[in-house]
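Severity: low
Component: inverse-folding endpoint
Summary: output formatting inconsistent between runs
Steps to reproduce: submit the following structure tokens with default settings.
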């Protein structure tokens, strides 16, 4: 247990319930258990890691899904652990707050970049290193959205480690100043730690609330409605994209840095 490789190979099963060799080449990430349950039901496969910090499931075609929990520290943990798997690509199916009038509940966002407001990424790279997705993954996901005639937004999202900020007018003024399209707690970390570990990564975010106004702040009732109306579609898009990108998409990685 002297190297990072030794540690993550040993730890990944303890965290997710699945050993290194049990994962597929393509990975979906989520914050919510119902995504994993829906995936497992669809493919008649078992959910691993129940009762532990994370859960996972893998279908017979080599697609896996992991519920890593909420927050940037958990996002960094799973991206470090996945360095033991060395997947061909990872897609985060997250929820975010829409910060522009053009981002309504139910819209999808393919973030072109994320502002590193969470702090976790600072342990991997200096602040001036941008948090970016892998272009080829996002290009392929955008093609799938277009094929289904679904509108989507693109732009910069802000990732924060603060879950409760909606009352803070100074923070909201700052968000308006930096002109971000959405806010979440994981995207920048997934991008930065994925980059650090040489993992190709992307994010398909679902706008679940519009927290810049008091009436737009997420509640249990509003989140339940969003889940019922849009989560099946988001999961379906993720499954469709990551199931076929290896055979249909352009080569993901072209260069070695």
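Observed output (run 2 of 3):
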């Amino acid at each position: 247990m002297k190297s990072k490789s030794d540690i993550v190979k040993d730890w990944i099963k303890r965290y997710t319930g699945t050993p290194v060799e049990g994962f597929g080449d393509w990975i979906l990430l989520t914050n919510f258990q119902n995504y994993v349950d829906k995936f497992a039901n669809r493919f008649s496969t078992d959910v691993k890691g129940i009762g532990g910090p994370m859960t996972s499931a893998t279908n017979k075609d080599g697609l896996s899904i992991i519920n890593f929990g909420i927050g940037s520290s958990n996002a960094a943990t799973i991206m470090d652990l996945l360095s033991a798997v060395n997947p061909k690509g990872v897609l985060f199916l997250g929820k975010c707050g829409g910060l522009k009038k053009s981002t309504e509940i139910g819209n999808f966002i393919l973030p072109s970049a994320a502002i590193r407001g969470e702090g976790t990424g600072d342990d991997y790279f200096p602040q001036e290193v941008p948090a970016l997705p892998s272009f080829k993954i996002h290009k392929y996901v955008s093609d799938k959205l277009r094929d289904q005639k679904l509108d989507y937004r693109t732009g910069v999202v802000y990732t924060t480690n603060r879950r409760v900020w909606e009352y803070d007018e100074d923070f909201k003024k700052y968000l308006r100043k930096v002109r971000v399209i959405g806010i979440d707690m994981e995207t920048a970390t997934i991008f930065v730690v994925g980059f650090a570990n040489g993992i190709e990564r992307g994010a398909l975010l679902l706008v679940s609330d519009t927290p810049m106004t008091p009436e737009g702040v997420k509640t249990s009732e509003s989140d339940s409605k969003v889940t019922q109306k849009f989560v099946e579609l988001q999961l379906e898009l993720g499954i469709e994209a990551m199931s076929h990108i290896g055979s249909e998409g352009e080569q993901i990685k072209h260069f070695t840095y």
